[in-house]
Amino acid sequence: MKTKHTALSTTIASLTHRLSLSLLMIASLTSPSWANVKVAEIVRKPVVNDDKITIRIKVKGEEDRPAMGLQDTDFKLLVDKKEVKFKTQDWKSPEESVPPPAWIIVLLDFSGSMNQPDSRGGKKIVGAINAIRQFTKVSSERGGNTQIAIVPFGKSSIYCKQGYPISNETLDKFFIASDFKLQNNLDYIASLTPCASTNLYEPLMKAVKFLANTKDPRFYLLADSPEPQPRLSIILLSDGYHNASNEEQDFQTLSTLLKRNNNITVHTLGYGLTPEQLGQKYKLGKAATRANIGKGAGKVPEEEFVDKKRLAEIAKLTGGIAEFSGDAETIAENLQLFLNALLGEYEITYTQPNAERGSKHDVQVEVASKGATAVKSQPQSYTIRVFGRSLPLTVRLIMLGCIFMAIGLGGVVPFYFWGQYLKQEALRD
Description:
- With 429 residues, the protein is α+β, with helices and mostly antiparallel strands.
- The chain has helices at 2-30, 124-142, 168-171, 180-190, 201-211, 247-260, 275-281, 308-318, 328-343, 393-428; strands spanning 39-42, 47-49, 52-60, 75-79, 82-84, 91-92, 102-109, 146-153, 175-176, 231-238, 264-271, 322-325, 346-351, 360-367, 375-376, 380-383.
- The strands form 3 sheets. Strands 9-8-7-10-11-12 form a 6-stranded mixed beta sheet, sandwiched between helices. Strands 1, 2, 3, 6 and 13 form a 5-stranded antiparallel beta sheet that branches.
- The longest helix has 36 residues, at 393-428.
- 37% of the residues lie in helices and 20% in strands.
- It folds into 3 domains: 32-96 and 346-383, Immunoglobulin-like, CATH 2.60.40; 102-343, Rossmann fold (3-Layer(aba) Sandwich); 391-429.
């Protein structure tokens, strides 16, 4: 009995230690005091409603990743270089604020290698589609107008003559995140069999050109529109590499296009073993490169090589995020990271001190997690259109009642008595 009690105590102690470690790891990811804020940006012109001003702030940490989990106490407002206080209830986290409108194209690699198992043994294509389902679910829960198009791509080959070509028609299959048709489309894609070779750059260039059409009113609003300009983004999910012979030239063409359209953010997601893991698996003594692709000893099978370097370069050119993983669960987490990077904005509403019609002001925000150096945004200007805020409805109703009472006492009542007087005078006559 004593032995069992000792064993049980040891087990509990071990579990407690593991639980404590897990909680510490979670806290390190979510607590603002562990965050390292690098960039704070007021993402568009402040919204002016009487003397109430609303600003939206995007905050980034290491490697341009969105800084989530901050608190209202981590923010400080400076209006015309003077601090302005705001109430806790007037501050919203990215999960609470309504996200800005967005158009997102998910390019899904449909090459034959997506039929291969991932690091956990499940088919890559199944894991990828399940991850996209979770991505659409989170998008739907956040609300707003987030339009998503899921587009398989793959170049025809001797094993798959048809392939999955990209065109404006295949790209223009957007559904709002909450639309059941989006899930129906995913069901249809899940019924298909990946069978093609990988051509990364052509589908990506066509998607960029599609979103770069400035004549499309969905993507580009008029300059004087009161609505915010939609966020435009492409998520490239691939387990391969651009296998064309003129890869370097194709990449330079793609780079020029991406730089020219810097309002379109491209996030890249590699699905497979890293070059370092491939180097260990095939005993290369180094990280695998394109030169190691081939058959036989000391070579990496073509279907296993993922061009991590190029995927990272593509994302960097657009200010996007590059992630890499070998299992479906992490793929799903990475897709949510991309969503936070695209739509994750904090929101603050405050009252303009001493608001006057036509007065111009500048607002800045300072953001700092506890114990870290504050980061200040660039100032954004705005103009007050009216004298302060309008009176509350109850006050206006009271004032209206007072006016009617004054009219009654000053006009109707005297008129009534005057009428009575005239009537009495007429009776006397």
